[in-house]
Amino acid sequence: MASGLRRISVAETLADKIVALRPGALPAATMRKCEDLLIDVVGLCVTARNQDYVESALAGCDDDGVCTAIGHQRTLNAAGAAFVNGTAAHGEDFDDTFEGGPVHAGAVIVPAVLAACERHNPDGRMALIGIAVGTEVLCRLSLVVPKAVHKAGFHPTAIFGAMGAAAGVGAALGLNARQIVDALGIAGSMAGGIIEYLAEGAWTKRLHAGWAAQSGIRAALLARGGFVGPRTVFEGVHGLFHGFAHTTEGDYAALTGDFGTRWVTDRLAFKPYPCGTMAQPYIDCARRFAARGIEPEDVAEIVCEVAEGTVHRLWEPLADKQRPPNGYAAKFAVPYLLATGFVHGGVGLGAFTEDAIGDPRVLALAAKVKFVIDPDNPYPNNYTGHIRAILTDGSVVEDRQPHLRGGGREPLTRQDVVDKFLLNAEHGGWSAAQGDAALKLMAGLYNGRIDLSSLRG
């Protein structure tokens, strides 16, 4: 052992806890959340299957195999399927969020574990363990040094996703503790994802989940084959947090302390709108304004109280957020999203077409939206919304949303998740019969053999 290194590393402590988990040992709430994740992710893959970025992702793969790209006839190898499915699941920004991260777990972990199991271990019970483990690792990693990865210019889902996917695939394939440590160490050198997509609405955020998913598979398979990774991948002087958070000091107990006995996965939130998570409470406020009978033309100015940590992604440059250059950029522009919710009574999948982002009533209202930083905003532990509108008659109206709908304080029901799936499946061109058949398959997938062939096409 090199001088100064821990005798037992963070990764070794985590790996010991992962291999101690057994099929059937998950709490009912955690198992139910993993069922919801499966339904949600498959629906998201279907809704995006005909989008140009998914077609490009498929065209960029030259690794055909036996694994399912959901919604497509073409089959790929495990890494390729995980990449395409992860990219599709994250592409519309309609996927789950972990409050406290913020990170998106389902779009990384579900594609990675399903593809790995479809190819290497088609045991639904192990897929369930893998999805639970991978999700838990990804979410807990975001708590070690909150907000630091985003502040450093990286996408936490991309960075922590590679690690979570390696852990989840490792658990699903039955790797031993030493192999899981190696898989985590290897994945640390595969992690990456800058947030420069924010500048002009480029597509790269969409592939971050898919890249992390395929990286986790490759890392786990390399470890299973004997490839050695650094055991101090997390806390090391040149480790993951040094590289992507610019510190090695963090709350590593948030990752390992009660892992396997308390499941933060249970707190995953499912989005009601297909756009940036922190924008969603503001949309709720705007919808309530419209429900009062206030017309957009009655508004002289809107001022929103916001968290400082969200400004660089959702509020600045303000002119671009008021008039986004394209539909993808619009998903991360609160003034546009707020105005869309106000004018149209909500924000759906159709709010990001070229016609939609040029709607003159929406743009006129968005131009009136400004922000001030609230130093007491609880982000990232809670996502809140606030609108203060000055009307043309001089009166002032105000509304607050105290939490994220779909999150731990107001969770979606199973029927809500199913309804969202059916909406996404229809949007992606599936018939009602295809949607119903997929739901039937998923209802028993964790109890049987992983066979995703009926989700092709």
Automatic annotation (TrEMBL):
GO molecular function terms attached to this record: lyase activity
Entries under Pfam families matching the protein: MmgE_PrpD_C, MmgE_PrpD_N
All copies of domain MmgE/PrpD C-terminal, residue ranges: 273-427
Domain MmgE/PrpD N-terminal: 12-247
Highest taxon listed in the record's lineage: Bacteria
Family: Belongs to the PrpD family.
Name of the featured protein: 2-methylcitrate dehydratase
Gene source species: Bradyrhizobium lablabi
